[in-house]
Amino acid sequence: MLLCWSATAVEAIRDALHEERDAEIRGDDIALTNAQRNAKRAGEEKNILDMFCKDLGSFVRFYEFISQIVPFDDTDLEKLAVYAKHLRPLLRPDACQCQTLPVSAGHSHSIVNEPLLS
To answer: Within 13 Å, how many C-alpha atoms sit on residue 29's CB side?
Structure first.
């Protein structure tokens, strides 16, 4: 199952900012500090995920270029490059659509619609 990591990270940032705004309205300094910390942490996590996606693309481009010049006999590296090449498009925020369905006891579950691969 493909996880919508980018959408989840954006939702975490949005929720933290919403909590921050609510804490400001209530005048709750402790909740405000916690909400600011959560917003900062969620932003850092999204930056890490974005950097991973960027690094994955850089690796694929570098490997495709250098493998034309230098013959590699490492099949594991070739497999990694092929895997990374096919993984990167799936990591785009618009590559999957998450839907959250409410269920009893206040919990929620996400259903992920995976794109069809050709």
So the answer is: 0
23 within a domain of the structure (yes/no): yes
What predicted TM-score, i.e. pTM, was given to this entire model? Answer: 0.60
Which residue, chain included where needed, has tokens 């900012």?
17
Q: Look up the domain containing 71 and give its range.
A: 5-113
In a domain, 118, yes or no: no
Domain count for the chain, please give it: 1
- For 93-102, the pLDDT digits (tens) are 665 554 444 4
DSSP state for residue 113 in the 8-state scheme: E
68 CB-contact burial (10 Å; exposed 0-12 / middle 13-18 / buried 19+): exposed
Which of 15-19, 23-27, 114-118 is predicted with the least confidence, judged by mean pLDDT? Answer: 114-118
Q: Is residue 108 part of a domain?
A: yes
